[in-house]
């Protein structure tokens, strides 16, 4: 805590790695809150893991019981709206409702003035009659405006916020740390808008708990800080599970436009009585035609028939020129200049968008229409301006419409280098604390996210070493090309059978994919030497129900993917799981996007040999592996065995070049790795658990 406090005093960012269960959250929050209260700052703590959000609330409540800290938990409008409208509709309703209340207040003031002037007329005051006549004329105008507003669309919940006293709500809000669900329930019972009340209550609070979305999106962040009543330099941000910022930032920065949106925009333009409609149609129709032609050309023989309702990426980028979609667009376009006509399309889109808002405001429309022309024109403008920049990768994807069974496409600008999103954030705020159990190597994180000269600190698993074993099993390397080999499958199945048999309780097995998890689940299911209950996870499985069944068992083996939801953010404490295994080196699936990320890093850091592979593949994979190993041994009195089943984790991996991954682990974790032959694994596990008297009854016989 002292190191973090010192870094905050120096206005330095902090990179904090701490093993699971070591109290990272409180270690960061306590000095951050102390510093914030001393210097009049606000702390924003954020995560993208739902379970961790609940832990934040618990930690914040513990702090508020000891210190006078005002804390709120914030979620987006969509999860708190009482009437279930979209964001733009909500904005219009809010503005209309506020105008209605202001007009009612104006009417009340004019009515009071008219009554006072009537008294003065009765008293014979000179000029009172003329003044009252002017007031009543104005009052008639306001009454007419009010009638129009009542005929329009308003939000009754927000109306009640504006006309009543909200003191009781804020007293309740700050009496504890309230969840968004509790706020919604409180507001629903009283027909109030909990979301708007929460926004009002955020100003100048000490602590806000939120998700990544509110900080990584620049537009939302600007609004968010405005609701806090803070400038960015008055905010200290704390990111939990910070190893996930990289992928989350890519998701926030990437932009996409579907074929359907383009079609809707062109239909919108047909009805637009505006001279700008023709140039807008020139641009958007050419882009739509180019999109269709591009994915038709990119789909190989028989590939269209295999397209499902999931987006399927097609390669359209070129190393020596613009992408195929841009080239097709330029070939098809026949207007008077793309830049000029895109600008006219943007102007028309903004005009139409204002008209839609006015129609909804006046009650002429029951929903707030989104302007498809504006969305399409904004995307085409970005595509042409940014599509050739380093770190922006043009993509074309297709999917099958489940309703029509037709294939349709989308264009996407995929952001490969996340620091384009995150660097500005870390520069703007006073300081940031990034924490996770798997942040290292710190230099890679600094490069990837754009964190300059941070204070770095790492704390390993401080629990007793004699209560854990980390074994690197010299099993065959599970390269994708060798996964179908019968001898490889048999060798790994034998290892997993021993792991299940010699675990006194539950075993948790992670694989490179759900398909591999299913393969070994099926191989062990028929074996007489495996008496454990075998549970299989999958992409179509209710994982939470499966997890509950697993932890309620006292002798189960769960097969899942390392890329699924159980590999991080989920604790298996105590008897929930005693052995955890990572089978193979779970490199991410090779895809157009992954190759684009590798290429972008290679070009961005061309002076560093192999930066693309290291930054895009190796380090994320090892972080995933370390996250999975961290699902067990979560407290000082816990115990268990952690298995890495693949010879690429052993000391022999130094002979395997970049495919040997042992050296990618932090030094103290490498020191704990004990190489073991597959046939000796059962003896290692038997001795470890027997020494701890972990077996109920006699231990299994080797």
From TrEMBL:
GO MF, one example: 4 iron, 4 sulfur cluster binding
Coiled-coil ranges (or none): 93-152
InterPro entries xrefs: ATP-dep_Helicase_C, DinG/Rad3-like, Helic_SF1/SF2_ATP-bd_DinG/Rad3, Helicase-like_DEXD_c2, P-loop_NTPase, RAD3-like_helicase_DEAD, XPD_DNA_FeS
Alphabetized Gene3D superfamilies for the sequence: 1.10.275.40, Bacterial XPD DNA helicase, FeS cluster domain, P-loop containing nucleotide triphosphate hydrolases
GO biological process, one term: DNA repair
Pfam families noted in UniProt: DEAD_2, Helicase_C_2
Helicase ATP-binding domain span: 1-287
Keyword ATP-binding: yes
UniProtKB keywords: 4Fe-4S, ATP-binding, Coiled coil, DNA damage, DNA repair, DNA-binding, Helicase, Hydrolase, Iron, Iron-sulfur, Isomerase, Metal-binding, Nucleotide-binding
The name this protein goes by in its record: ATP-dependent DNA helicase
Domain of life: Archaea
